[in-house]
Specification:
The complex is a heterodimer of chains A (187) and B (902).
Chain A (H helix, E strand, L loop, with lengths): L9 H10 L4 H14 L18 H4 L11 H8 L9 H10 L6 H12 L9 H12 L5 H15 L9 H8 L5 H4 L5
Helix pairs in contact in A: 4-6, 6-9, 7-8
Chain B lengths: L1 H11 L3 H18 L1 H11 L3 H12 L6 H35 L1 H33 L4 H27 L8 H22 L5 H28 L3 H11 L1 H35 L22 H5 L28 H30 L10 H8 L8 H24 L6 H38 L5 H4 L1 H24 L3 H54 L23 H38 L15 E2 L2 H18 L6 H23 E2 L7 H29 L17 H10 L2 H10 L2 H62 L5 H26 L1 H22 L7 H14 L10
Parallel strand pairs in B: 1-2
Classes of the chains: A mainly alpha (187), B mainly alpha (902).
């Protein structure tokens, strides 16, 4: 192989491999993708762990994310302080969770966070409305949207408290036949 | 909102419970961090506090400020043991309660805290141990027992850490935390794994650890390598990200098919064609390996070769080329035997691989039955394909999600509405009638054309069209019937998903009908040829006889043998069948490619470039771009494979051609999809229909097995071509081998095994076994369903507990807030929830019998505790039921703070 790259130390790469579902090669590729987003911002040497954040505007314009209605939520969930600006660590985290290898539980946990628009640890009716509006680009009438939200709550709300807890959500999503195949971004 | 409320409830202190809870929450965490509080823990956990003291005394010098307090703590150690136990229980309860509110969130955080605590203790132990090892070297007996115990514990810790390291990537933590935890865990493991092997083979242990590390690294590298080795992975990923997973499923299927065909090709090529080419008699040595004199001058023309006549026909690609010599070459390779066994194993391998992949597909989808309960939820949370990275696809996806939502809303609203049933029924019957007419018509057309082609084949100088009429007609039918069916299916007004299945079934029936008509016509042809065979045999005989015995030749000089090209020969129906399949495959391939080129690529070019100078919008309007026809392509692939399976016995080269076809179509279709197709408007789920395709493939495999088995078992092979010539039936080759090459007793055993008296009982036994296994699996699945129901009931009970509890805390704060009427509905809901929970509980009690009733009774209590709380605001004053249940609450638990102030 040879040590061609000088971006990370060997230990850093090993640690990243332990912490993500990526191989060494994929980590390097992800780094270059990250670096490409803001070449003037991101240094080519990460051995000293520089504190660099790429703003959300650049993250959201990646071809993998730019058509995703939930891109802002994704970036917010994975960024450190919820503003969507991401460090390399956040970036790797995001694609690791979204990778094919990530287990269902992990994906379900983050999916819950993504769909929880107001960060109150419950998916309430308002969150559901947001989700539907984003999914359909607001082409449904308000009655239809509210009917859908009602139906979803009816189906998935196990404890009938009018909102979905993480447990409800996991219980529902773990039975979804194509959750794993759709909640997945390959890079 | 609720979170805030709860927080207020905790801190504002709605009575003792709230205070206790907030206190334990706050201090419980801090206590673990502050060194003074850590002491007692250690003292409690260390086996005997006194033993720990020497180390402590030695240490007392080095640490600065905290030591006096620690000493105190040591002294108080025993006394505090009791208190500690109390605190431990308090912590436990507090932890339990914390779980209530936001259970899983906390749960995920809780272990880490524990780990940290544990780690800190570990460090202390380690230091202790160091000191002990130096100072207590003399007093060995007690020290050793201690260290062993500690070692065991450390071993456990190390194992835990290792588990943590292994599962680090699936922890829902931010990366910085993961990295920190990982570093700590690794340091810990590195520090201690050497110490573990102390005493007995430390080196061995270190070596083993090293090897384990290397092994992990190797596994990772191997995994990297393996993912790189999957062919076309990037291409398919690319398509998947542009077109969603359903189109990619076709390409994955194509890749799978390519793999299967490669194996078949390896079998046939390696065991039949290569030995024949290397060791068999060369071309031109015997009549069956020579082009006959009449065809000789045209045999190299391209048009002849293109039809697989001429030199192509007399090559190792076809059945007729093979000689019936029992063994060939210096290896004494039994070619006829190998030919037969390869023909059988092609089917055997295909059956096995199809069934295996079906079974593995099935295992993935266990909880299919439950998906009906969550239609809207699944649509809401899993319908967006995160892979989509193309704005066109995204637009389509938005549209399809919108329409699917609308559809299900309509379904929901109209599920109880009845429309004009008679009209739809009439239309459906009409549609089916029309389609059956189409199917019959196409079947007859093919039969007619095949009959005509037999007449053409007897005539001289037929035109190109007349020669290829069968293929052309079949391809045209395959091209025009599916759209026709789709148009007719519009009458039926089915749900699109059901409609798609119908469509698939009808196209399948069409193809199958065509295929079998074609086969029947071929059979007719074969029978005709077989009936002619006897006369040809006589002619051949007579020619040879006359040639050698004719007068006017010098008797003394032995006459040179007749040139093989001049020997009259039979029609060799096997090769004819092989040629037919070969032509069909090639023409099918060409038609597919031309369709793609014309229908997709040229259309796309036209739409793209003529749009600048056209009266209407071509891209959005009428022609627009083509969609990728998944169902048609998959069915085409399946039927092509059926042809291959049928034809490969008569044309060993067919599989090679198919491998080429699949390879080219992989690249060609990938290119065509990416360049000239637009994604579907209605994307149907790839995961479900995959097994549907496999089922069709299995059906086709079975159907293509039938004619081959029939010809092998009941038709006599041609007398002058192929590896089985001269035998009565093809399978005689086995008998021959058994008789000649195996010891006699084995032959006897085989004869005994082939006895119907043994075979019929064996078949019966198999049926019985199938019946037995089937019933066992049925009962198991029933038990499974029952268990699942029970789990669900328990789950619901638990949930209702939690919700009631959570509501109770919310109520505490609501009392201070003087809340509004919004929770009226919630409360009533809750009441019903509790009701159902208690119902299921009683059911459970009944089900579990007397043994479990006591525990169930315990669980009933807390539920009833909270009942008055939820009823308290007096929204539903049906307290007649509530009062008797309120008593146990008062009597068992004295938490008055729970009671709402009236």
């Amino acid at each position: 192989m040879g040590n061609k790259q000088t971006v990370f130390t060997h230990e850093q790469l090993e640690a990243y491999q332990d912490c993500t579902f990526f191989t060494r090669k994929e980590i390097m590729r992800l780094f270059y993708r990250y670096q490409d987003l803001a070449p003037q911002l991101v240094p080519l040497d990460y051995t000293s762990c520089p504190d660099v954040k790429v703003p959300y505007e650049l993250i959201g314009s990646m071809p993998e994310l730019k058509d995703n209605p939930f891109r802002q939520r994704i970036a917010q969930v994975f960024s450190e302080d919820g503003d969507g600006h991401m460090t390399l660590d956040n970036f790797l985290d995001m694609f690791s969770v979204m990778s094919e290898m990530a287990p269902r539980d992990l994906k379900a946990y983050y999916a819950f966070k993504i769909y929880d628009f107001n960060n109150d640890d419950y998916i309430c009716a308002w969150d559901l409305e947001q989700t539907v509006t984003k999914l359909t680009r607001g082409e449904l009438s308000t009655e239809e949207v509210s009917l859908i939200c009602e139906k979803v709550l009816d189906e998935a709300d196990g404890d009938h408290d009018g909102r979905l807890s993480l447990e409800d959500f996991q219980n529902m999503i773990l039975r979804a036949p194509d959750f794993l195949s759709t909640f997945h971004i390959c890079i | 909102m609720s979170h805030q409320l709860k927080g207020q409830g905790e801190e504002g202190g709605g009575g003792t419970r709230g205070r206790a809870r907030s206190g334990s929450l706050g201090t419980g965490d801090r206590s673990r961090r502050s060194p003074s509080m850590k002491r007692p823990h250690r003292a409690e956990k260390a086996p005997v506090p006194r033993r720990a003291q020497p180390g402590q005394k030695e240490r007392a010098g080095s640490p600065g400020s905290g030591s006096p307090r620690r000493k105190q703590a040591e002294r108080r150690g025993r006394r505090e043991l009791l208190g500690d136990r109390e605190r431990g229980s308090a912590e436990k309860t507090c932890r339990g309660r914390r779980k209530d509110g936001r259970a899983s969130l906390r749960e995920q955080r809780a272990p880490s805290k524990k780990e940290k605590e544990v780690r800190r203790k570990e460090e202390m132990w380690k230091q202790l141990k160091k000191h002990r090892s130096s100072s207590m070297a003399s007093s060995t007996s007690s020290g050793e027992s201690l260290s062993e115990e500690e070692l065991a514990r450390i071993l456990e810790q190390v194992e835990d850490k290792k588990k943590l390291i292994a599962s680090m990537r699936s922890k829902p933590w931010p990366m910085a935390r993961k990295l920190a935890e990982l570093r700590e865990a690794q340091e810990f493991v590195e520090k201690y794994e050497g110490a573990l092997g102390k005493g007995k083979g430390k080196r061995l242990y270190a070596y083993r650890m090293l090897m384990a590390k290397k092994w992990v690294k190797f596994k990772r590298d191997f995994h990297n390598f393996k993912t790189q080795c999957i062919p076309w992975e990037m291409k398919i990923k690319d398509i998947e990200s542009h077109f969603g997973s359903s189109v990619a499923s076709y390409f994955i299927f194509l890749r799978w098919m390519y793999g299967v065909n490669l194996v078949l090709f390896g079998l046939i090529f390696g065991l039949v064609i290569i030995p024949e080419v290397l060791m068999g008699m060369p071309y031109g040595s015997i009549p069956r390996k020579t082009v006959p004199r009449a065809e000789e001058e045209k045999a190299m023309d391209f048009s002849v070769l293109w039809d697989f006549e001429g030199y192509m026909k007399y090559s190792a690609l076809f059945y007729g080329y093979y000689n019936n010599q029992r063994t060939i070459g210096w290896l004494r390779y039994r070619l006829p035997m190998a030919y037969f066994m390869v023909g059988v194993s092609v089917f055997g391998y295909s059956l096995m691989i199809v069934i295996r992949s079906m079974a593995s597909n099935n295992q993935g989808s266990t909880s299919e039955g439950e998906s009906d309960n969550f239609t809207f939820s699944f649509k809401m949370f899993t319908s967006w394909d995160y892979l989509i990275g193309n704005s066109e696809t995204a637009d389509n996806k938005y549209a399809s999600i919108t329409t699917s939502f609308k559809e299900s809303i309509v379904d929901e609203q109209e599920s109880n509405k009845e429309e004009n049933v008679h009209l739809t029924r009439f239309l459906r019957v009409l549609a089916n009638f029309l389609i059956i007419c189409c199917l019959c018509g196409s079947g007859y057309l093919i039969y007619f054309v095949v009959k005509r082609s037999q007449e053409f084949s007897k005539m001289q100088n037929v035109s190109w069209y007349e020669r290829n009429e069968v293929e052309i007609v079949m391809s045209l039918l395959g091209m025009f019937c599916p759209p026709l069916f789709e148009t007719i299916a519009a009458l039926e007004n089915y749900h699109p998903r059901i409609g798609l299945k119908w469509q698939l079934g009808r196209i399948f029936a069409l193809f199958l009908g065509n295929l079998y008509t074609f086969l029947l016509a071929l059979m007719d042809d074969i029978q005709l040829k077989l009936s002619n065979e006897e006369t040809i045999k006589n002619i051949t005989h007579w020619t040879l006889f006359h040639y050698y015995n004719s007068s006017g030749w010098n008797e003394s000089v032995p006459r040179p043998p007749l040139h093989p090209a001049d020997v009259p020969r039979g029609s060799c129906w096997e090769t004819a069948v092989g040629i037919e399949f070969m032509r069909l495959t090639v023409s099918d391939m060409l038609v597919t490619y031309i369709t793609i080129l014309l229908g997709d690529f040229l259309r796309a070019c036209f739409v793209r470039f003529m749009n600048y100078c056209w009266c209407w919008d071509l891209e959005a309007g009428f022609p627009s771009y083509a969609e990728f026809d998944i169902s048609g392509n998959v069915l085409g692939l399946i039927f092509n494979q059926g042809m291959i399976w049928m034809g490969s016995f008569y044309a060993p080269g067919l599989v090679g051609i198919n491998v080429l076809r699949l390879l080219t179509s992989m690249y060609f279709q990938c290119w065509a999809v990416m360049s000239s197709n637009v994604p579907h408007e209605r994307v149907f789920k790839a995961s479900r229909s995959n097994n549907f395709y496999m089922g069709l493939l299995l059906l086709v495999l079975f159907l293509s097995l039938l004619p081959v088995a029939y010809t092998i078992m009941s038709l006599p092979p041609s007398f002058d071509c192929g590896p089985f010539s001269g035998k009565n039936r093809m399978y005689d080759v086995i008998q021959e081998t058994v008789e000649n090459d195996f010891p006699t007793f084995l032959g006897k055993i085989f004869a005994f095994l082939a006895n119907p008296g043994l075979i019929i009982p064996a078949i019966l036994l198999m049926f019985l076994a199938i019946y037995y296994l089937n019933s066992v699996s049925k009962s198991l699945s029933r038990a499974n369903a029952q268990l699942r129901k029970k789990i669900q009931a328990l789950h619901e009970v638990e949930k209702s507990h939690k919700s009631v509890k959570g509501r109770a805390t919310a109520r505490d704060s609501e009392d201070t807030d003087k809340n509004n009427s919004k929770n009226d509905t919630q409360l009533t809901k809750e009441g019903t929830a509790h009701h159902s929970a208690s119902q299921s509980l009683t059911l459970d009690q009944k089900a579990q019998g007397p043994g479990a009733s006591s525990s169930a009774g315990k669980t009933v209590l807390p539920a009833s505790q909270h009942l008055p709380v939820s009823r308290a605001p007096g929204v539903r004053p049906d307290s007649g039921q509530a009062r008797p249940q309120a008593h146990p609450w008062r009597s068992t638990s004295g938490k008055r703070a729970w009671r709402p102030p009236h």
